[in-house]
Amino acid sequence: MSKFGTLVMGPAGAGKTTFCSALIQHLRLVKRSCFYVNLDPAAKDFAYEPDLDIKDLISLEDVMEEIGLGPNGGLIYCFEFLLENLDFISEAIEPLSEEYLIIIDMPGQIELYTHIPVVPTLVQHLTRSGALDVKLCAAYLVESTFVMDRAKFFAGTLSAMSAMLMMELPHVNILSKMDLVKGTVPRKDLKRFIDADVSLLEDEGSGANGEIRGAGDPASRDSVMAGDSFKKLNKAVARLIDDFSMVKFLRLNVQDEDSVGAILSYIDDAIQFHEAQEPREPNDEVQDWEDTAMT
Question: Are 156 and 12 in contact (CB under 8 A)?
Fold first, then answer.
């Protein structure tokens, strides 16, 4: 029997845990079951308490204190320790039925998704046919405020594409915190960011009066960021993204229930969730309503 889940990834500050909380709230609203897994060994505050928390196995704070590693090395150590103790996850997930959506909240160290094989190894364990057989969809979040700095936006887009190649999973890319850029980016330009239009870099570089930004001190940050070498680097990144033609974004505003529901529908389609559910009779709906009214 297959299970279904989503792996919520992205850089630090992208709003992964907030998205997980909004997703759980929406699932409860539509009377769907979910199982919340926290795999961030440094996370502390949750709107909804995780059903399974990696800190019950190992925490980043303990690793840093007892082994003397820094935060990045400590995080990698925690995941390597998790891979040595996969029963911790397997025993919790195995009893779940196909009606559950397993939501896995990941840490914000993008090396885990882009070039260190620990998360791909975990994904292989979860998706392997057998006791678990979880049909996973990766949800990669990039903060929408990146659109204010086009070089940063394409760097975030490159990290999303790298994660797509490493994970080898159905994948949805999400621009989070859309409420923060509402009214600051023209609708036409926003559509180009959604499609990761590489020609956006051609439009950037001159100020309002046509002057080159940072044209004063050659050692200043603005001068370096506006220099030819930096522009060539950005264009090379953009060409790489364009050559693969893999990345397109969905918009997310966690304060908008319809926005969260739309993201969920893409995840459901990617993992074919609804196709695996048994048909429900009209009397089942009446019984559910009566059970809810009595509780």
Answer: no
- Residue 279 DSSP code: P
Q: How far is CA 159 from CA 11, 50, 73, 153, 223, in A?
A: 9, 27, 20, 10, 25
Q: Is the confidence at residue 83, as pLDDT, over 80?
A: yes
pLDDT digits (tens, 9 = 90+) for 179-234: 999 888 888 888 999 988 888 877 665 443 334 444 455 555 565 556 678 888 88
Kindly state the average pLDDT of the residues 35-50.
Answer: 94
CA distance 9 to 11: 7
Q: Taking a C-beta distance cutoff of 8 angstroms, is the pair 106, 7 a contact?
A: yes
At residue 208, φ and ψ (nearest 5 deg) are -65, -30
| DSSP string over 80-105 | HHHHTTTHHHHHHHTT--TTEEEEEE
Task: Report CA dihedral (281, 286, 288, 293) to the nearest 10 degrees.
Answer: 180
